[in-house]
Amino acid sequence: MENVILLVHLMLALALIGVVLMQRSEGGGLGMGGGGGGGLVSSRGAASALGKVTWGLAIAFIATSITLTIIAAENAAGSSVVDRITDAPAPAATPVLPDSGDSLLPPSLDGNAPLVPQAE
């Protein structure tokens, strides 16, 4: 169910972006104000229709956002990140290496032991 709501949410987001980009610039902030059109639909009527579509998409987007938040809160089931960290098992102890004396080289390279195992 969560995946379906998430898919609808993403489609609403894309549709909302598209509708907002189709709207005419009122202030001409970029210097590209829409021109007046003489068609079947006046520019004022088209603007109000796009405004209503924008409002509808925005309300649906907010509703899916709240729904996804509620579903995520139910799936959390009262556990927090801190609880998960404290419940984690302790790390294993680091292995103890055998004492090699004063040499920093492994026993096969420190000169006292042969590099190639001797055949018996």
What can you tell me about this protein's structure?
Helices cover 52% and strands 0% of the residues. By secondary structure, it is mainly alpha-helical. The N and C termini lie far apart (70 Å). 2% of the residues are buried.
Task: Report the sheet-strand fraction.
Answer: under 5%
| Tally of DSSP β-strands | 0
Give the biggest sheet: none
Structural class: mainly alpha
Summarize the structure.
Helices cover 52% and strands 0% of the residues. The protein has helices at residues 2-22, 43-76, 81-87.
Task: Tag the structure with descriptive keywords.
single chain; 120 residues; mainly alpha; 52% helix
Topology:
Elements: H1 2-22, H2 43-76, H3 81-87
Helix pairs in contact: 1-2
